[in-house]
Amino acid sequence: MFDFFHRSLRNKLLVAFMIIGFFPYLLFLTYTLFLSETKILDKTVTDQYHQVDMMIHAMQTHLHLLEKEVLFLSKLDIMDDLIAEDIDKRISRLLTQKYHDYNITLTLLAVDTNQVIIAASNKTMLTRPFTLPVNTTASKHHIIIDRMLYIYAPISASFDREKALGMLVLQYDLNNLGTYLTHQQDRHAYIINPYTHISIGDRRLFHITLKKNQESLIAQEHLIVYKKLDTILKGWYFVYGVDKHIALAFLYDFIRFMLYLSPLIFAAIIFIAVRYSKHMVKPIVQLTQITDHIIRTKDYSTTLSLSTRDETAHLSNSFNNMIQTTRDALEDLERENQIRLQRFIQLIEVFNTIIQTKNEADCILVSVTYLKELTQQTAITFHDHTGVCHTGIDLYVNDFEHNQKLYYGTISLDLETFDDTNERNFYRSIATMIMLQLDRIRLINHTLCASRAKSAFISNMSHELRTPLNAIIGFAQYLITYENLSDDQQDSVAHIESSAQYLLGMINEILDIAKIEAGKMMVHKESVAIVKLIETTCAMLRPLADDKELSLTFHTEIPHNRYCHTDPKLFKQIVLNLLANAIKFTDEGEIGLSMTLKENILTLTITDSGIGIEPKDITGLFHDFTQVANVMQKRQRGTGLGLSLSKQMARLLGGDISLHSDGIDKGCRATLFIKL
Questions:
Q1: Kind of pairing, strands 393-399 and 214-218?
Q2: N or C: which end of the chain has fewer CB within 10 A?
Q3: Does residue 39 have a pLDDT over 60?
């Protein structure tokens, strides 16, 4: 009989559990005969009301926090971007970040005064119309439509709180409240609107009528309580039910009963624990100590030795076998990691060396030399397409002109002689590096040839075209002053002089773009009285505006004695181009210039009341030789280089140019940003 206990730890635990649990179980059965069902139900109802209050408080706290968050966001200064052109940047990023912070099903929307969505955490909703059937000036900031809760707040300008910019809306899926409902198998909860019969949670088990503000009901299988909600979910009900067999459990009274018998139970437990625990726990303690030692010291040579003959002895043997297997696996893994690390270092060295080669011959020579060192095979050679090599690594290069692959040659390294797949992949990676470097060398050479040809062409053009054009302009200007010409002849000569000036300007613009692309456009920065420079530029073009009877105004709060560090020639050329464009494409109305300086950022804005442009065509205007068809195109000639050249000059000065227009016949706004 004692051998029965010594051979099985399970038997020892079984006997101990039977001794500890048998007598309390009998006493428990006796006590249940006198337990009052009414008492248990009353306590369960009290606990249910407490649980309902906790869940309602959690939901309402969550919704109030969302409402406070919406009110807080609507008052941020960033909302002023609703009247700026970059609303889809900062506000959308803010709404998207808040959406990720919540990590629930909701959508944040910024709606302008025209009830159009202009910023959203879900970008698919942009530019959609959006209307809420609410009075946004009321004290309430929420409304429930179907399963959606809309929390909203009006947005006012930070510089004028009386100026309404739109509305911030949080579209919240009420199904999110399901996380605040209990999801246990024997407990059920849901919230419901008795008027619309919309519910959140599973209400299939309950068939009740909601009449009072709160009530407890005993159904056939469940004990149910419900309570009417207020604040944001006003008019909804929270329903909570517990399976009746759970409600009638004897847990709490059994605990009290166990307290009365605790001295006897404790005595029995202490007796059994003292008698058996030390012997039962000793093997487990030893195993724990050995495991902690291995974890602390990483010494996998440690083994566990026990003198017992039960399951712990089998566990000890299995543990020792596992440690041995782990030790062998770690040693193999360490050796393999060393090999992989060495190969990785070699691959990086090969790559760094190959990428520094300047021509194809050096690339092949260096690659073959490295392959000989890595493989210890001195017979490795390279065979081009004219040679003969039956086995090896084939190299291919790209024909960029015809968009196809061309056979380049073969390195006589037979990968099939390597048994390790990783080893073969290692040499294939080197081959890929070689082909990429060959493509890079060929592409660089091709690009350099094209660049030299382009530079030579532009240089020849500058000498071949500008000299005769200057002569044409000079002769035309001489003929204009000749008194014996008729009026028609004077007009013809004037057309010749104008066309020649136009061609000379176009050639100069092309040469300027070529200089910028070649990196030869030099920037000479100096201290400049920026306001005086703009006034001088306006004075140069004011006669053109006066000829068309256009109002040309300039406004700035920058002092006249304020000096800025920039290139006056390039800056003036940019302003001339932008202002000339505004005058060219405006037949009537006004042209306004405004300039601000804030945190070393100089912003110059030119607005006109001209023909405008479709927003989708704005990006194309900054491409070389690009013009947009319009009604003034027949009257106003251009090369399509002015805006492109101005944008590149602005970038040379550390800035940029942007255009904005609401459409045809709605004018245009050009903005120049320069970081000083």
A1: unpaired
A2: N
A3: yes
If you count them, how many residues does the chain have? 676
Please state the φ and ψ torsions of residue 3, each to the nearest 5 degrees.
Answer: -65, -30
DSSP string across 388-410: --SSSEEEEEEETTTTEEEEEEE
DSSP structural state of residue 645 = H
Q: Work out the average pLDDT over 484-497.
A: 74
Alpha-carbon distance of 466 to 460, in angstroms, equals 10
What residues form DSSP beta bridges with 566? Answer: 526
Residue 631 has pLDDT above 50, yes or no: no
Report pLDDT for 11. Answer: 59
Distance between CA atoms of 632 and 602, rounded to whole angstroms?
A: 32
Helix, strand or coil, per DSSP, at residue 199: strand
Domains of the chain are 2-33+263-297 (no CATH), 37-57+181-249 (no CATH), 75-178 (3.30.450.20), 522-675 (3.30.565.10)
CA distance 71 to 542: 49
HEC profile of 449-511 = HHHHHHHHHHHHHHHHHHHHHHHHHHHHHHHHCCCCCCHHHHHHHHHHHHHHHHHHHHHHHHH
Q: Measured between alpha carbons, how far is 324 from 317 in angstroms, rounded to an integer?
A: 11
**What strands, in cross-sheet order, belong to the sheet with 551-556?**
551-556, 590-598, 601-608, 668-675, 655-660
- Specify whether the CB–CB gap between 320 and 340 falls below 8 A: no
pLDDT band at 521 (very low <50, low <70, confident <90, very high): low
Q: Which has the higher per-residue pLDDT, 462 or 626? A: 462
Return all residues near 596 (Cβ < 8 A) that are at least 6 apart. 556, 557, 558, 602, 603
**What phi, psi does 584 have (nearest 5°)?**
-60, -40
- C-alpha to C-alpha distance for 115 and 31, rounded to whole angstroms: 70
pLDDT in tens, 126-155: 888 988 876 655 567 888 888 899 999 998
Residue 298, pLDDT score: 73
Separation between Cα atoms, residue 353 and residue 414, nearest integer Å: 23
Q: Is 443 helix (H, G, I), strand (E, B) or coil?
A: helix
Q: Helix crossing, 487-517 with 421-480: angle to 10°?
A: 160
In 204-339, the DSSP E strands lie at 214-218, 222-228, 237-243
Q: What whole-number distance in Å separates Cα of residue 304 and Cα of residue 425? A: 44
Residue 598 sits at φ, ψ, to 5 deg, of: -145, 125
Contact 379, 391 (CB under 8 A): no
